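Supplementary Text 2. Reproducibility record for the structural model of the 253-residue chain.

All settings were left at their defaults, and a single model was retained for analysis rather than an ensemble. We include the record here because the model underlies the residue-level annotations in Supplementary Table 4.
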Amino acid sequence: MPRIGTRKLYFLLKEDFKALNISMGRDVLFKLLKAEHLLIKPKRSYVKTTDSTHWMKKYPNIAKNLTVTAPEQLWVSDITYIKTDTGHQYLSLITDAYSKKIMGYQLLDNLTSQGPLNALESALKNRKYNHQLMHHSDRGLQYCSADYIKKLHENKVQISMTENGDPYENAIAERVNGILKYEFLIIDGFKNHQEAFNVIKESIEIYNDIRPHMSCQMLTPNKAHRQKEIPLIKWKKKTSKVSPSEANINQIL
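Retained model, structure tokens:
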């Protein structure tokens, strides 16, 4: 986790500080990292992966009225690009909105519906609960395709989509993209598909098993996914027009 935030870094290190008799609070750690030029500088990059100008049926945003109180009530989906020397790859992710666990993913060299569909099938295999599930995504043709909608219907999953292009309509999915790309340095790119896949697979395992989340009371996604009583932190919506994956909104997770 080469670019993990200082608050999470302090959470992971504070027991080691105690064991070594080092008296250091979070604010002192911030000052130390600043003095050593180790604070994270945000990176920005954008490639459009959503094409909503198509004829296929689009669904309303019903997720905005849902209060999430347990794992697998709401999944959020998105696609992000990955640079390689042989061309762009596209990473499809499905994340649980409650636990922030990445439930399924797929890396392909195209923007067809196959990548998101494979990620969805993987996520469905990883389900642990049988209560009602909702799937939220943008209105891209991949998520509106007949095969994707059919798979959701077959598994009795409710369908919700963004409506006005506001990235905050799918903020959790955008933020998870940003964590993988900017904290794990996936944004720097790879030589080829296989190298990208290997690093992304390892990064997702670390993300699910090790990285603590502020909105889950500093539990990891896997730990949060195994219980149902986290008092979720509510964050105020920001007015900035910058995408959540680019803005300084670590509070989302």
